[in-house]
Write a structure and sequence with these properties.
It is a single chain. By secondary structure, the chain is mostly helical. 85% of the residues lie in helices and 2% in strands. The chain has 7 helices and 2 strands. The protein has a two-stranded antiparallel ribbon with strand order 1-2. The mean pLDDT is 85. The chain crosses the membrane at residues 21-40, 99-123, 130-149, 206-227. This is Gustatory receptor.
Amino acid sequence: MRDIGHDTMKKSPYIAQEFKELGSFIVDAFYVVNVLVQLSISIPLNGYYCFICICVRLILRSFISAVKILKARSDYLTVLELYDEISLVIISTDDFLSYSAFINVINGMAGLFWSTFTLVFVLEDDYKSWVCLSAAVFLYSCLLLMVLIPASTANQAAEDAKDVIISLPGWFPQHYKKLKIYVRKNFKQRKLNFTLWKIYTINKSLLISTLGTLVTYGFLVGTLGTIQNTQDVEIKT
């Protein structure tokens, strides 16, 4: 895209020769500023989201380990109180971050698609552009994975913690009926998941689906572009 802008600038009859070099500089500056703005927004947000997911996962794993000790002490009240507090924190966190996670994933997918498509189907012999686009592919991949992988592991830990709570009544037969009613009433329908704007629950299958979608649409658009170029050549000949 940068080279296209330069070629258009150089070949344009409407731009004076002395301004073409300045125009090329402006094109380069525009792309640099655009990338810097995206990075300055995406990296802190994705890093913060990744950090939160890691913290939640560690807390849930610690909770699961603590439950074993509390079961031995027959202290089921503490187990229920801890899980209630942790689950409310996760729900409020997802309410606050789910929209930004959705935007960051869309941005990462769009950037990864654009850079990979340009690198594979459009780019010709241009070493500088190849290096820049390869760096863009790596960067957008990292931004995408910084959201999907930590969130999916945190969601898996949340599912494990919920399984522990659902099975809690069986560990205390003398309080089985009371605990079963309480757990079913308060926790069975409570969803502890990091989501993308409350639309998709983030899990490992979503990661595979995302990569598969990018590959599918990449080859589809590339094939259509090849067919169009072939038709243009046939018309000219």
